[in-house]
Amino acid sequence: MVTPLLLGALAVLLAGPAPALLARVHRTRHTPRAAMVLWQSGALAAVLAAVGAGLSLVTGTAWQRAPDLLPYLTAGIALLLTALVLGRLLLSGHLVGTDLRALRRRHRDQLDVVARRDARAPGGTAVLENDLPVAYCVPGRHVQRVVVSVGALDRLSPDEVSAVLAHERAHLRARHDLVLEAFSVLHHAFPRWVSSAAALAEVRLLVEVLADRAASRDGRCAALGRALVTLAEGRATGPGFALAASGDDSTLLVRVRLLADHRPHRVQAAVLVALAGAVLALPTAFVVLPWLNGLV
């Protein structure tokens, strides 16, 4: 009975309080790739713990072969709750994924009609007739779009345009949309009184930082920083289902400061990856160790 309680408590902890606390540790943003691994391992561990809590209670009851009916009734309720958790995850994944893909497909079709090409934005970039400076990408499995407005092309220098386009292509190349989609699914699947919005917000920031790092590798750090400020001044963002270079005002200063940090932070990255492995191993340990003790 102890193992299901521990796993249930771990699932609640990893779904709510832990992400809220981790989001306050801003130093992890200096190693965005390792930080992303930690966030992903925490999310996966929360799911494993939630599912494992019910399954461990069911298997424990089956092995004990208790003569009383109450343990079997409790195990049945636990199995039902486990099925409910899995059902919510599957339903959330279906709804979020279906909506995002439909919106992106519709927007790509609209872009094919209204967008044009411009020599200032090479590489098949779709250019919108909009005076507000905006740049974003529309992900897709087979068909993708990088979009920039005329207002952005008019305000940005050629180097800044190149940096912004590199930022958007980094999103598409790394499929950051799938990372955000996974965290959106988890956020909607867990009850609001359990889940924390901090995980989704922090992951959104981290994917932007990763794209910033990729775009600034060729000495375009200063150009990208200036471009981000210019895009943010326009107060325009891309559609909610897209990934926009400007992001939001609350994270702009953070991203510009991180652009200026060129140190590798190898020790911190190693610590975060090791912590990610430990977090992911916790649910497995809670299930396996009692089983091994029972064999001794």
UniProtKB/TrEMBL annotation:
InterPro entries: Beta-lactam_resp_regulator (IPR052173), Peptidase_M48 (IPR001915)
Keywords: Hydrolase, Membrane, Metal-binding, Metalloprotease, Protease, Transmembrane, Transmembrane helix, Zinc
Signal peptide: none
GO BP, sorted A to Z: proteolysis
CDD domains reported in the protein's UniProt record: M56_BlaR1_MecR1_like (cd07326)
Cofactor note: Binds 1 zinc ion per subunit.
Thylakoid found in the keyword field: no
Transmembrane segments: 6-25, 37-63, 69-91, 269-292
GO molecular function, one term: metal ion binding
Superkingdom to which the source organism belongs: Bacteria
Family: Belongs to the peptidase M48 family.
Protein name from the UniProt record: M48 family metalloprotease
Biological source species: Nocardioides flavescens
Taxonomic path: Bacteria, Bacillati, Actinomycetota, Actinomycetes, Propionibacteriales
